[in-house]
Amino acid sequence: MLTKSNADEIASYLTDASNMQGGHTARVVFPASTAEVAEVMADATRTGTPVTISGAGTGVTGGRVPFGGVVLATERLARIGDIVHESGGGYATAEAGVVLQTFQRAVAAQGLLYPPDPTEWSCYLGGTVATNASGARTFKYGTTRDYIRRLKIVLPDGEVLDVRRGEWRADDAGQVRLPLASGRVLVAHLPRYQMPRTRKHAAGYFIAPGMDVLDLFIGSEGTLGVITEIEAALLPQPANVLAGIVFFASETDLLAFVRAARAQSLQTRQAGQTRQAGEAGLDAQALEYFDAESLAFLREHNARVPADVAGAIFFEQQISDDTEDELMTAWLSLLETHQALLDDSWFATNANDRQALRDFRHQLPVRVNEWIARHGQRKVSTDMAVPDEAFPAMLRCYQDTLRASGLRYVIFGHIGDNHVHVNILPRDAAEAASARDLYRQFVERALATGGTVSAEHGIGKLKRPYLQMMYGDQALREMAALKRAFDPAGILGRGNMFAEEFLSES
Ligand SMILES: Cc1cc2nc3c(=O)[nH]c(=O)nc-3n(C[C@H](O)[C@H](O)[C@H](O)COP(=O)(O)OP(=O)(O)OC[C@H]3O[C@@H](n4cnc5c(N)ncnc54)[C@H](O)[C@@H]3O)c2cc1C
Q: Beta partners for 290?
């Protein structure tokens, strides 16, 4: 099996997009099949060697950053299998190291759509399942979890599991029993915490009464097993998509527009069953926010961004030749009602123009990351979501607190799901300390309103204190006990989600 231990060759596996420092490993192994992954894991359990699974390293919480042991790189697991049409869509099988964008293009070439779309398209399919990634289209289509039909997973002792949705469920007492090929029955107990009622949530293990065992692995951040193969559900490719970046002079108008667009979209989806063929309703697939600071950042690289605006919304909606005019009129009418600056706004109804708008949106995190790298600091980046009714006050709290702080910041993201990212950009160590204090205050506030500490990025190693604030020590002990049932030697993804001391206590 390909193995690398030369410092230059393995340097890129010691960090991820969080820029977390201090990672180290003896070697990186590159299995090319599930059988080779099983070999690595069986050997690691036998020798008590910690293993950290590496996807593409686009994670932003240090999840793939190793602190000792070996790194298991998934990039040679890169085959796309069958792409199958079924009525109303289809499904496809692919290995964990397939780049998400490659997968999306392969299914699109067959007239199908794989909706999960984190803004960073270079991630691997396995990494997106391990983090239950979501993105702009989650507002309409849900998260990665909603598309996973089957997973092949190598457990830490090398045993291979093939789990299909609907096959194994937790019982009423929260017990999971999984018969394994070796004849052993794996028994685990679900933690007893309740997940928050936010539209998105990616903090800690997914837990629900009578849950499907497949859902335990989705979002488990490399702690329960190595995902080697994925079968994902696909939808029909939409005929076309209408997209716009619309600017507002007043934030009150912007927020009222978002509320109205969300309400109309949900109404359209509810009415979907009763609508006649050819009739269309306004139904956003994405509703994304840029605050004034984000626009100022982007204006430095793009002179077309208007000055003196309060913020902007990026929206997308599926259209066809039959519905294009009707839906364009519906969006323009809603925008006019809420005083959008239509003359300054940008719209796209073809793939090239739409890609330009998506690239514009993608530029923000990229530019922010470049800026922070130049200042030799780490950005302090939030990922909280709150229930619908709590969002306007949460946004106001972010803005008032940050303006008063004198720190540089941007606020942007998935406003349709009440989930915006605050990126605080410290220029030096003193500002970094103030930024971390503010982060903690924001987490407290989000939790007090019934929110989540992570809506999409997961916990990894960097956000562990916030998971602890959210669920408390007892829940972390129960999570560690669940992990122990899958990984008795405690070798896989050590330090992800909870500190290692919880493993020794469980
Ligand atoms: C600019 C930018 C924008 C982003 N926007 C979004 C966004 O909109 N939405 C979103 O959800 N995320 C976003 N992300 C985060 C990131 O793209 C996701 O977390 C991605 O899903 C991680 O995939 P990866 O292959 O890079 O995994 P890695 O970073 O390599 O690993 C992530 C975690 O998954 C584990 N893992 C990886 N592969 C496997 C496997 N095969 N089996 C088991 N565990 C595994 C690792 O051990 C680690 O804990 C963004 C990141 C960047 C840099």
A: 312, 412
Cα distances (angstroms) measured from residue 169 to each of 172, 176, 311: 9, 7, 45
Candidates 2.60.60.30, 3.40.50.300, 3.30.465.10, 3.30.420.40; CATH matching 80-236: 3.30.465.10
> What tokens appear for 1 in the block?
């099996």
Tell me the best of 60, 70, 103 to mutate to test the pocket of ligand 1, counting ligand atoms within 8 Å of each CB and taking the most: 60
pLDDT digits (tens, 9 = 90+) for 20-31: 999 999 999 999
Return the pLDDT at 277. 47
Domain 238-360: CATH architecture, name and number where available? 2-Layer Sandwich (3.30)
Do 103 and 125 touch, CB atoms closer than 8 A? yes
Q: What is the pLDDT of residues 77-92, one digit of tens each?
A: 999 999 999 988 999 9
- 17 CA: nearest ligand 1 atom: 53
SS (H, E, C) 393-440: HHHHHHHHHHHHHCCEEEEEEEHHHCEEEEEEECCCHHHHHHHHHHHH
Calpha distance 13→26 (Å, rounded): 11
Ligand 1 and 55: CB distance under 6 A: yes
Task: Give first-to-last CA distance, the chain, whole Å.
Answer: 35
Instruction: Give the ligand 1 atom nearest the CA of 221.
Output: 49
Check: pTM over 0.85? Answer yes or no: yes
